[in-house]
């Protein structure tokens, strides 16, 4: 089996939530919770936090994480992950978003298994939502796919337009063949990527396929400060189950 490394790209500045990676969730900074969840995956041989911020670097070292400083000129998390990927020996790279503090490690194992097929350059996740009132929310990224579960498009706008039954909510964890990732990061920013503020559109706009792995449950993320309360309530309820 091809080995995989998990890389968590983290920056301090955020338009909606500055300092988000260090926000406390029941006494732990969010980046620590993301790192600990990544470590529960069985098929990662290492997990690395990648940042250009000394505050995040120091916090990560304090809880024992492997953390690398990266360039501050990167335009996306993909580029930051690629900088680390180029320096390590791993044929598969998993890009784990730093604002997903409660994902399950088995998701990482699933994408590693899917990418054992070397014809697949890239894979990510989505789950079905049956709340049409959430469709217009721009912080919820939607994806539509073909009959073989390859992405057709991702958008912050309603997609499909006016869907009343369900839509697919994208989860920002990505798996790549390392060689593909290195090539992708060298391509110029695409028009759709910049308009939608979605880095995965660079792959689609350049003609590459993205496999969508369907999951059956929500994967909570933090976009703004009120989301911290939702995550804390989720963790409290999980502990009481």
Structural account:
With 241 residues, this protein is an alpha/beta fold. The protein has one domain (4-126, 170-240): Spore Coat Polysaccharide Biosynthesis Protein SpsA, Chain A, CATH 3.90.550.10. Helices cover 30% and strands 25% of the residues. The chain contains 8 helices and 11 strands. The strands form 2 sheets. Strands 1, 4, 5, 6, 7, 8, 9, 10 and 11 form a 9-stranded mixed sheet that branches. Strands 2-3 form a two-stranded antiparallel ribbon. α3 (77-85) crosses α5. The mean pLDDT is 93.
How is this fold's topology laid out?
Layout: E1 4-10, E2 24-25, E3 28-29, H1 30-39, E4 44-51, H2 54-62, E5 66-69, H3 77-85, E6 92-96, H4 105-114, E7 122-129, E8 142-145, E9 151-155, E10 167-177, H5 178-186, H6 191-196, H7 201-205, E11 211-215, H8 226-240
Parallel strand pairs: 1-4, 1-6, 4-5, 7-11
Antiparallel strand pairs: 2-3, 6-10, 7-10, 8-9, 8-10
Helix pairs in contact: 3-5
Task: Please tag this protein with its features.
241 residues; alpha/beta; Spore Coat Polysaccharide Biosynthesis Protein SpsA, Chain A; 9-stranded mixed beta sheet; two-stranded antiparallel sheet; 8 helices; 25% strand; globular
Count of alpha and pi helical runs: 8
What summary fits the major beta sheet?
Answer: 9 strands, mixed
Poorly predicted runs: none
Indicate the radius of gyration in whole angstroms: 17 Å
CATH topology: Spore Coat Polysaccharide Biosynthesis Protein SpsA, Chain A
């Amino acid at each position: 089996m091809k080995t995989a490394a998990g890389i968590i790209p983290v920056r301090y500045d955020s338009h909606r939530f500055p300092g988000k990676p260090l926000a406390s969730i029941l006494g732990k900074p969010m980046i620590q919770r993301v790192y600990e969840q990544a470590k529960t995956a069985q098929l990662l041989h290492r997990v690395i936090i990648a940042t250009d911020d000394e505050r995040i670097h120091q916090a990560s070292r304090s809880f024992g994480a492997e953390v690398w400083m990266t360039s501050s000129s990167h335009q996306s998390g993909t580029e930051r992950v690629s900088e680390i990927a180029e320096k390590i020996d791993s044929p598969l790279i998993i890009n784990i978003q730093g604002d997903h503090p409660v994902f399950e490690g088995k998701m990482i194992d699933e994408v590693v298994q899917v990418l054992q097929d070397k014809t697949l350059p890239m894979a990510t996740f989505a789950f079905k939502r049956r709340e049409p009132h959430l469709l217009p929310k721009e912080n919820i990224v939607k994806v539509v796919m073909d009959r073989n579960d390859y992405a057709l498009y991702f958008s912050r706008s309603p997609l499909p337009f006016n869907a009343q039954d369900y839509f697919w909510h994208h989860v920002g964890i990505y798996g790549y063949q390392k060689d593909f990732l290195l090539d992708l990061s060298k391509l110029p920013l695409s028009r759709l990527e910049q308009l939608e503020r979605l880095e995965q559109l660079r792959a689609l706009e350049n003609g590459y396929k993205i496999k969508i792995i369907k999951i059956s449950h929500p994967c909570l993320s933090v976009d703004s400060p009120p989301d911290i309360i939702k995550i804390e309530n989720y963790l409290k309820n999980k502990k009481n189950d």
